[in-house]
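Entry 14. Structure prediction run on the chain below.
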Amino acid sequence: MADAVMAERLIRVAVDGTGGDRAGAGVVKAARFALAMYPGLKMLVFGPQDVQEELLRAGIGPERCEFRAAPQRIPQDEP
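Output returned:
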C-alpha cells in the first residue's frame, strides 16, 4: 500500500551534484535509480555544467530532473 501511495504523490528532492570523487557518474546512477523507483519524483540538481551533460546523455531530461548551474565549490577543509 505504501508503494501505491508513493507512486501517486509528487516528491521533490534537491541534489548536490558537486561533491564526491565521481560526482557526475554518481549523481547519474542515483538519479536513474530514484526516478525508476518513484514515478512521482522530480529532482532539482545543483552542480557544474558537466553533471547536466551527463544527465542528458543518460536520458534524464528536464521533465523529471531540473538542473541549476552551481560552478563554485566549497572546499571540504574550509571551516
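Residues 49 and 71 are 7 Å apart (CA to CA).
Filed with the rest of this week's runs.
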